[in-house]
Amino acid sequence: MAAISSFARHGKKIVAIGRNYAEHIKELSNTTPKEPFFFLKPTTTYLPSGGKVEIPNGILCHHEVELGLVIGKRGRDISQANADSHIAGYALAVDMTARNLQEQVKSKGLPWSAAKGFDTFTPIGSFIPKSDVKDPHDLRLWLKINGAFKQNGTTSDMIFRIPRLIEHISSIMTLEEGDLVLTGTPAGVGPINAGDVIECALSDGEGKNLAKLNFGVVDREGGYQFKP
């Protein structure tokens, strides 16, 4: 368990599910997928709690708080019935998105990799053992900016539930020990700016706190510059 708890250092990939909460789909005027939809993020995007997200020059950066699944056992073509046995635990995460860059590349039919892949763009909390979570579909997750609620949702609103996500992803690519699956974000996504203080939390259906995640925001010096 010691190795899996350090998944952010040893995992090979982050698989991020998009459009898995109906209200979030509506707020971005997207279409509802007929099957789970995902993209990949590099593990170099991980940012430990207490760190600072770096916003690249010219980027409109949006927050998306999510429940992460930490894979504990390698698997391919995993059935929904066996999905739970491949999950070692959970983590609270934020999928940061360069929204203006994403909209630009989407309009051209190009991939989202850059919009999701900047360094520091996956703030990540500590590993939560599976035994601490009675029902992963009965968890509340929220995000505050400077003390004000921006996102406050529940995993019960997922369109595709966790076993279906594991089944779908593993039918395409092998899931390996230490990989992280981000399960989608509830409504309320929006911008962050340099100087903001971000607080996130995850609690169970009884109100017990399972995780907290805090980080600051700065403007990145040098590197990429967005050009409209």
What percent of residues adopt helix (DSSP H or I)?
Answer: 10-25%
What is the H/E string? HHEHEEEEEEEHHEEEEHEEEE
Largest sheet: 6 strands, mixed
Class by alpha and beta content: alpha+beta
Mean pLDDT: 95
Distance from first to last alpha carbon: 46 Å
Treating each run of at least 4 consecutive H or I residues as one helix, how many helices? 6
Shape: globular
Count of strand segments: 16
- Estimated radius of gyration: 16 Å
Unreliably modeled segments? none
Strand content: 35-45%
Strand order, sheet with most strands: 2-1-13-6-7-10
3D structure, described in words:
Helices cover 17% and strands 35% of the residues. The protein has six helices and 16 strands. Strands 2-1-13-6-7-10 form a six-stranded mixed β-sheet, with helices on one face. It has a five-stranded mixed β-sheet with strand order 4-16-15-11-12, with no helix packed on it. Strand 15 and strand 16 (209-219) form a beta hairpin. The radius of gyration is 16 Å and the shape is globular. The chain starts with a helix and ends in a 9-residue tail after the last strand.
What are the SSEs and their pairings?
Blueprint: H1 2-5, H2 7-10, E1 14-18, H3 22-27, E2 37-41, E3 46-48, E4 52-55, E5 61-63, E6 65-71, E7 87-94, E8 97-98, H4 99-107, H5 113-116, E9 122-124, E10 128-129, E11 139-145, E12 148-154, H6 162-172, E13 180-182, E14 190-191, E15 197-204, E16 209-219
Give short descriptive properties of this protein.
228 residues, alpha+beta, 6-stranded mixed beta sheet, 5-stranded mixed beta sheet
